[in-house]
Design a protein that fits this description.
alpha+beta, 3 strands, binds zinc ion
Length: 110
Amino acid sequence: MLTTLETGLDVFFLSPGAERIPACGVCGGVPDVVRGQLGPTSFAAAMAERHGSAEVRARVVVEHDVATCPAASQPWHLKARELVREANRTASPSVRALLEADLAVVIASH
Ligand SMILES: [Zn+2]
């Protein structure tokens, strides 16, 4: 299954050699880190790489490390990610509390 990861939740682009690895923003797990990747690290940089001049492409293709939650493509993690997104979106503290309670149940079941 093809899974789109979300930067800042289940995937993180880090400076090369970063020692501090953030926990997964969905489940709190420890991400797997792949060091020394070369490429764009944002949507805008990816568009610039694809459509920009050679000079622009050279500036947006940068070395970086990638930290990805090993559970990111699991169905339970996708459900948990949606709960996190909804909890972050709502203006209602009571709805957020309900979503966070549901999130805790999903995470505890795995
Ligand atoms: Zn996770």
